[in-house]
């Protein structure tokens, strides 16, 4: 464990709780969604007990995921707005994958790749919420015509698969940059990690007394 003087706050406790609630909700809806969509994976529904229980819990965990993402949106959206230099970051993907992004552009709270992932996840979440509510039986589905229900289910499935892909990328990149996962587990990262991957953010923290908003 790093010395307290060698670490800075990266994610506050409420942000970490929201993140892991989102992760729990996503895992449960992904598992049940795959079980509903692919007959060969129907056995996955057993994780929730029975297919009937899974059908009830799927939208419930979906709401849990959405609520967690709402908290994360309110906290992180200001940090994920486009900035000058974002384009240059994307032009040096090879250097970034080698861990040399600090040679490309001075990254703030989040790098452009994280920003793009953030907005894609939020956009897909909105579509999943809308289509999920339309198809949610027995509460809302009867309010809509059958053709709209079918379209909603197709869009919901497509968005769900795309969301799984984005989350896999998110998890992979979290492990790719050594020290990143620590921030979401304990809330802090080492100063050397911050200086290498988010140097501008580290300087901004110094002016605010190491308090992450």
Written account of the structure:
The chain is mainly alpha-helical and 213 residues long. The protein has one domain: Transmembrane di-heme cytochromes, Chain C (Fumarate Reductase Cytochrome B subunit, Up-down Bundle), CATH 1.20.950.20. The chain contains nine helices and two strands. Strands 1-2 form a two-stranded antiparallel sheet. Helix 1 packs antiparallel against helix 2, helix 2 crosses helix 5 and helix 5 runs antiparallel to helix 6. The longest helix has 31 residues. The chain is elongated. The two termini are 24 Å apart. The mean pLDDT is 89.
Question: In CATH, what is the homologous superfamily?
Answer: Transmembrane di-heme cytochromes, Chain C
In total, the number of domains comes to: 1
Termini Cα gap:
24 Å
CATH architecture: Up-down Bundle
Q: Tell me the name of the CATH class.
A: Mainly Alpha
Tell me the radius of gyration.
20 Å
Count of individual helical segments: 9
* Helix share bin: 55-70%
Dominant shape:
elongated
* Low-confidence segments: none
The percent range for strand residues is: under 5%
């Amino acid at each position: 464990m790093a010395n307290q003087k060698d670490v800075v706050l990266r994610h506050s406790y409420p942000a970490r709780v929201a993140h892991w609630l989102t992760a729990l909700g996503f895992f449960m809806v992904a598992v049940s969604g795959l079980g509903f969509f692919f007959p060969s994976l129907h056995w996955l529904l057993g994780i929730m007990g029975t297919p009937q229980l899974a059908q009830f819990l799927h939208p419930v965990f979906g709401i849990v995921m959405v609520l967690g993402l709402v908290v994360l949106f309110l906290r992180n959206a200001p940090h994920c707005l486009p900035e000058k230099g974002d384009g240059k970051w994307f032009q040096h993907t090879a250097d970034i994958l080698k861990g040399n992004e600090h040679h490309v552009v001075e990254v703030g709270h989040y790098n452009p790749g994280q920003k793009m992932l953030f907005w894609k996840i939020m956009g897909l979440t909105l579509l999943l919420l809308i289509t999920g509510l339309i198809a949610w039986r027995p509460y809302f589905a009867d309010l809509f015509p059958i053709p709209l229900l079918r379209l909603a289910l197709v869009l919901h499935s497509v968005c769900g698969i795309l969301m799984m892909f984005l989350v896999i990328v998110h998890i992979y990149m979290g492990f790719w940059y050594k020290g990143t996962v620590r921030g979401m587990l304990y809330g802090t990262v080492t100063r050397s990690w911050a200086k290498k991957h988010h140097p501008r953010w580290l300087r901004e923290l110094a002016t605010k007394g190491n308090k992450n908003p």
